[in-house]
Design goal:
CATH class of the largest domain: Alpha Beta
CATH architecture of the largest domain: Alpha-Beta Complex
Largest sheet: 10 strands, mixed
Helix content: 40-55%
Radius of gyration: 21 Å
Strand content: 15-25%
Shape: globular
CATH superfamily of the largest domain: Spore Coat Polysaccharide Biosynthesis Protein SpsA, Chain A
Order of helices and strands: EHEHEHEEHEEHEHEHHEHHHHH
Length: 320
């Protein structure tokens, strides 16, 4: 069985922890790609919901499925473990609660084999709620100019590091990357509490060309649990990553840093607005406007100020 792995074209890395409700569908979406030479590595990170036993039975039936067991190292640590043993020169990532659309892997691997200078590729993806409600695609949400590209081919991302610093358009479960590049970058930064995927894509983009397609090739499940805790961790991590670019000599990266800082401030304004702290929201919107001027930020700040005047309790709460 192990000898066959030496001929692998692509290694698919799936970290899993207590996602037995979605793991079989994720794995089935990989097998449905029907790409010859596909190695699948599932890293079960201490599951207690029956996934460990199910994976053992599945690996007995599928000679190309390899299962690793870790003890709570987190998704990034689990992915790094899989990268270290992957047999193929190309590694594709899939989270255990996401699903690939048919044909996704084939076009990605074919493109990367024809273009060996490209370090990693990614696609657009669609968000779904827990009940299956369609919440639109990533490129749509960010109003990315990538939407104008035909979904039938890949295109080079110009100024890739700056483009991805300004807006993170990369869904982890859409990425295929060179194993050597991932190893040279030392994989995912496990020190980060969140946004470690974005951090890695930025580092890879600084090392090699990046290509993308507007093909909607993945279904991303938006889970509602622990939203507040995850949100706060993510904002702190994003701020930490952005700080690397504050005084960068590259004008494109400095501009992207300003856009990223404005995005954080707008996210904080949205949080304050949801909590009824309109003065705080207005303050964050105005700060975002002065960093990266846009009319919609000024309009949002004005609306928050007007509402704070008519809701004195909100204004008082904002000063706390």
């Amino acid at each position: 069985m192990r000898a066959e792995f030496h001929d692998a074209r692509v290694s698919v890395v799936i970290p899993n922890r207590n996602n037995f409700d979605t793991l079989p569908a994720a794995l089935a979406s990989v097998e449905a790609q029907q790409v010859p030479g596909t190695e699948i590595i599932v890293v079960d990170d201490g599951s207690t919901d029956g996934a460990r036993e199910w994976l053992y039975r599945a690996s007995q039936k599928n000679p190309f499925l390899r299962v690793l067991h870790t003890g709570g190292v987190g998704p990034s640590g689990a992915r790094n473990e899989a990268i270290s043993i992957a047999s193929a020169p190309i590694i594709a990532f899939l989270d255990s609660d996401d699903i690939w659309e048919r044909g996704k892997l084939r076009v990605q691997v074919d493109y990367m084999e024809r273009n060996p200078e490209v370090g990693f590729t990614f696609t657009d993806y669609r968000h779904f709620g827990p009940t299956g409600d369609d919440r639109g695609t990533c490129f749509e949400y960010w109003k990315s100019e990538f939407r104008a590209q035909p979904p039938s081919h890949f295109f080079r991302v110009e100024e890739a590091e700056a483009t991805l610093l300004a807006v993170n358009l990369v869904g982890t479960s859409t990425v295929a990357a060179r194993k050597t590049l991932l190893q040279n970058a030392n994989g995912f930064a496990t020190r980060l509490a969140s946004a470690e995927d974005w951090d890695l894509w930025l580092r890879l983009a600084a090392m090699a060309p990046v290509a993308a397609t507007s093909m909607v090739a993945m279904r991303y499940l938006m889970r509602p649990n622990s939203l507040t805790a995850q949100r706060d961790k993510r904002l702190l991590a994003i701020s930490d990553i952005l700080d690397r670019y504050r005084d960068h000599e590259n004008p494109a990266l400095r501009k992207a840093w300003r856009q990223g800082r404005a995005r954080i401030l707008r996210a904080k304004a949205e949080i304050a607005r949801a909590e009824g702290r309109r003065m705080r929201a207005a303050s964050d919107e105005l700060r975002a406007f002065f960093i990266a001027p846009e009319v919609n930020k000024l309009r949002a700040a004005t609306a928050d100020l007007v509402r704070s005047v008519h809701a004195p309790r909100d204004a008082g709460a904002a000063r706390v």
